[in-house]
Amino acid sequence: MGENIQFNSPSGQQVPGYLATPAGGVSGGGVSGGGDAPGVVVIQEWWGLNGQIKGVADRLAGEGYRALVPDLYRGRVTQSPDEANHMMTGLDWAGATGEDVRGAVQHLKAGGGKAAVLGFCMGGAITIIAGVKIPELDAAVCFYGIPPAEAADPAEIRVPFLGHFANEDDWCTPDAVNGLEGKLTSGGIQYTLHRYDAQHGFFNEQRPEVHHAVASKEAWERSLAFLRDNL
C-alpha cells in the first residue's frame, strides 16, 4: 500500500519517509480520496521506521488518509531498548520537528486539505512539540509521550489535541499526565485525554508483552473519530 519517498524540509533538505495512500473510496465512515485526501504525519516510536509503524500508516490509508512517516533516524532501526534509547537521546528533537515533521506536514498539504500529526512514545512527545511549533498543523494525536519542559510548553498547543495514556506507564506516569492535563487546561487548549488500564506501548501489536488489544482498539476508534472531526 505504501512506498518509500523523499520530500523536502523547510530548509530544502531531502528527507526520507514512507508514504501510504488510499486506493479510493472506503466504507465504514472513512474518508474517500487520493491525492487530495486529508493527511496524517505518523511519528515513530524510539525503535525507528520499522514495519510496525509502517503498518499504522497503511491502516490510516485504509481509512482514506494519506499517511507519511518521516524517517527521523535516517534508516536506522533496532529491536534493542538500549540502542533505541541511544538513538532517541541522540536525536535533535527541535530539528526533527522543525525540519522533518514540518516538512512532512507541508508535503501533505501541498495539494490542499488539512493535516494532523499522530505519534507514539518518542513520537508522542514530538507530537506535542509539533502542536506548539508547526504553524501549518491542524490537529494532533499523542500516544503516551510527553516532551521535556524545555522543548515545548503544552499550554501553547495551537490545535485540537487528543491524548492516549496508560495508567501503568513508568515514563509518562499518571502524575506526569496530570501535569500535562493541568497545562492543557491552563492554556485553554481544545483537548481530550483518555487513560487506559494498560502499559506503555499498549498500541504496538508487535510487542505482546505490553500490547493491550481492548485498549488499542478503543484508542484507534477514538483517534479515527477525532481525525474525522478535525480534518
Give the tags:
231 residues; 8 strands; 8-stranded mixed beta sheet; alpha/beta; 23% strand; 35% helix; Rossmann fold
- What is the subunit organization of this protein? single chain
Distinct helical segment count: 6
Helix fraction, binned, reads: 25-40%
Query: How many β-strands, per DSSP?
Result: 8
The proportion of residues in beta strands is 15-25%
* End-to-end distance: 22 Å
Return the domain count: 1
In one word, what is the shape? globular
Q: Largest sheet, order of strands side by side?
A: 1-2-4-3-5-6-7-8
Give the integer mean of the pLDDT values.
93
The CATH class name reads Alpha Beta
CATH architecture grouping: 3-Layer(aba) Sandwich
What's the Cα radius of gyration? 16 Å
CATH superfamily: Alpha/Beta hydrolase fold, catalytic domain
- Class from secondary-structure proportions: alpha/beta
Please outline the major beta sheet: 8 strands, mixed
Would you kindly provide a written description of the structure presented here, covering whatever features stand out?
There is one protein chain. The protein is of the alpha/beta class. The chain has a single domain (about 1-230), classed as Alpha/Beta hydrolase fold, catalytic domain (Rossmann fold, 3-Layer(aba) Sandwich). The chain has helices at about 50-60, 80-90, 95-110, 120-135, 175-185, 215-230, and strands at about 1-10, 15-20, 40-45, 65-70, 115-120, 140-145, 160-170, 190-200. Strands 1-2-4-3-5-6-7-8 form an eight-stranded mixed beta sheet, with helices on both faces.
